[in-house]
Amino acid sequence: MQNLMNDLLQLFQKDVPMIELSNAKPFLKWAGGKTQLLPEIRSRIPTNFNRYIEPFLGGGAVFLSLAPQEAFLTDANEELINCFRMVRDYPEELLRSVAKFKISEKEYYKIRGLEPSKLSCVYRAARFIYLNKTCFNGLYRVNKNGKFNVPFGKIKHCTLANPEIIFKANRVLKKSKLFVMDYLETLGKFAHRGDFIYLDPPYLPVGKFSDFKRYTKNFFYREDHERLAIICKELNQRGCKFLLSNSYHSFIISLYSSFKIEKVQANRFINCHGNKRGKIAELIITNY
User: Fold this and answer.
1) Were 68 and a residue from 20, 52, 60, 193 both cysteine, which residue would form a disulfide, CB within 3.0 to 4.6 Å?
2) Which of the four pLDDT bands, split at 50, 70 and 90, describes residue 98?
């Protein structure tokens, strides 16, 4: 009996996440981030599933909010995945490194000009956070050579890394596995019956200035949306549950006509025209 009690005590001390972990928030600004859409997404999460898989990680708002017991998180953006790994593995060192940066236009272009592959993993992640918080509109955009090319955002003062937010994210990330991997390989390798997959691809543009697909040197074209829709049908046949978010567009509706499609309203804060920021229609698509 005593051994049983000890085992139960260790279980509750080690394996069961604390409730406040679901209050973890993104530590990055991210175009198309899902913080504003979280209530709509959370209300549609299935009650039972095996593992959580997210192949378009981005800012990770949904993952951080749900704090799943086991997660496979991937993204084609190498800088992004490295940053998440450092938050998971070396939060103290990361915070110390970020604290050394100065916010100025001169410093910004100096840091932007560094070659990430020649930096330590921690400093590389600190650079990523610095650029993310001080660049124009919090965008992450690269050129065809994969070089970050967003201009300075004229920021004078901001919190680059909030320790409380970093440590909450660190605790949620402890049970996650992070890989630099595209969505095709991720879903082909990791998705099995009973798993839940959240899909947040670069949205199909609905206007002239709606372009959030340049997270890596490769674009996400209409053909990619068609390919993803085919994969979603395969996931459904495989016995996986998925929730996909995308722009409110007739093309997307036609691709997923065999699934449950709901129109929701989300806030958009990143737009080159200030008067075009505000509520915008989006789609939530599920196979359950």
Assistant:
1) 52
2) very high
